[in-house]
Sequence to fold (325 residues):
Amino acid sequence: MYSKETKSTYSMASKLKGFSDWLLKVIGSGNLEAIVLSASHEYSPLIEELWKDEAIQATYNRRNELEKLPRVATYFLERVVEISKEEYEPSDMDILYAEGITSSNGLASVEFSFPTPAKYGYIDSIDQHYGMMRYQLIRVHSRSLGENSEWLEMFEDVNIVLFCVSLTDYDKFYDDKKGSLINKMMASKQLLESIVTHPTFHGKEFLLIMNNFDLLEEKIEQSPLTQCEWFCDFHPVTIRNHNIGTYVNPAPSLAQCAFHYMAVKFKRLFHSLTEHKLYVSLVTGLEQDSVDEALKYAREIMKWDEEDITFINEEYSTSLEGSTF
Fold:
C-alpha cells in the first residue's frame, strides 16, 4: 500500500516500465552482452530516457541504501548515447570510471616513473637518478591471497606495501561463506592484521591509502560512523569557526573528523602489532592529482629507508676503521 506521493515519485510510464522489466529479465538470463550490447546503438536512447525518468532519479538519490548500485554509474548513463556509437573510443577517464564498476579478483601490474622537471634549467644528479628509476606497482585483490594468505610469500621483494581502505566501508556488509554478515571495515582491519604479522612483510614499510573521501562527505551526515563496532566511540565535538583578526580558522567538517579518527585507529593498531609507524595518505580515487601525490609519498618513504641504510653503513664503516687503530 503506497501513499499518493510515494506512488507518483517512484512510478514510471508504461513504456519505460515495460522496457525496464524486459531489461531486468535479460540481466537475469545472463545474456545482457549478447542481446543488449550487440545492439547498444538501438537501445541507448531508451536507456537514456529511462535514466532521466523521475522515478529512477528518485531511486538513485537513495543509492546509499542500494548495495549493488555503483555511484560511478551516473558517469556512463549520462553519456550512454555518445558511448554507444560504433566509432566511440574510450578515454582514460572512461577506463578509470569503469574500474569502479568491474573489479578484478586477480593480479594487475603496471610500471611507471616520476619525471623530474628541471628547476631553473638544471637537474641535479640526485633528482636525475630518482627521475630515471622505474617502479612496479602490483595490485592484489584480497580474494587472490588464498586461504590464510599463503600467496603473500610471492611478494617478499617488495619495498613498500600500499594497503587501500575505502572510507565508506564502515556501514557496508557482505555475506561470508558461512552466510554471516561481515562488516567491510572490520574485514579490512582483520586483513591488515594478517598481512602485517605475516613473516614476509616483517620490517616492511606500510602506507595506508584511505580512499573515497568525497563519498564519505556525502554519506557521513546520513549514516553515522558508529555503525561499525570498531568506531563505537566516535563522538566528535562540534566547534564553531574561530576568528583571528581578519583570518577565519574553519572548523573541521564531520567527514574530516571521521577521516582523522579512522586514520588514528589504524595507526594505533599497526603500532601495537609492529611497534613501527604506519604512514597514511588521503585519496580521492578518480582524481589523478591525489593518486599521484600518494604514489610520490610512497616514493619518499622508500627514499627515507635508503638514506637510513646509507647512514647506518657509513656509521658502521667508521666504527670499524676506528677500532683498527
Q: What stands out?
A: Residues 1-6, 309-325 have pLDDT under 50 and may be disordered. The chain has 13 helices and nine strands. The radius of gyration is 25 Å.
